[in-house]
Amino acid sequence: MLTIALASDHAGYALKAQLVDELRAAGHTVLDLGPDSEASVDYPDFGRALGEAVAQGRAERGIAVCGTGIGISIAVNRIAGVRCALVTSGLMARFARDHNDANCIALGSRIIGVETARDCVAEFLSTPFGGGRHTGRVAKLG
Ligand code: RB5
Questions:
Q1: Catalytic residue chosen out of the listed positions 10, 28, 84, 99
Q2: Paired strand residues for 108
Q3: What is the CATH number of domain 3-139?
Q4: Residue 126: what pLDDT?
Q5: What is the pLDDT of residues 126-136, one digit of tens each?
Q6: What is the CA(71)–ligand 1 centre distance, in A?
Q7: Largest CA distance in the chain
C-alpha cells in the first residue's frame, strides 16, 4: 500500500473525489490536497501543492486532475524532483512508470472517462521502473 496525494481544479474535482474514495477503499493512505468542491479555482495552486507533497516525501505518488490534464501537469512539473506524466490510457501510464519513473500522473476529466482513469491509476500504481538503459536518461531530467 502507498501514500498517494491527489489534487485537482474545479474541472477535475468529481473525478478526483471518485479516485480518492476508491483508493482509500483499496487500502491506500490518501492525502487529498483539494479542492473540496466544484467552485472555480486555479490549477497552478493545486498542482504546486501536489508537486511539493511528492518532492518533500509526504506522498510516494501523486495524481493530478484538471479538465485536460495539461495545465495541472505543467504546474506539477515546475517542482524539482517531480516527474508528472499526462496520460490518456493505461498503456501510457505503464510506460510512464517503466521508462520515465514518473512519480505523478495527470488526468484530463474532459478527455477520458472514469474507466480509463481507473486503468491509468492501476498501471501507475502497479508498474515498477524498468531501470537499465532508462536510469541515466531519467537522471538527466534532474
Ligand atoms: C478549466 O476550465 C480548465 O482550463 C482546466 O481544468 C485545465 O483544462 C487547464 O489546463
A1: 99
A2: 66
A3: 3.40.1400.10
A4: 98
A5: 999 999 999 99
A6: 6
A7: 45
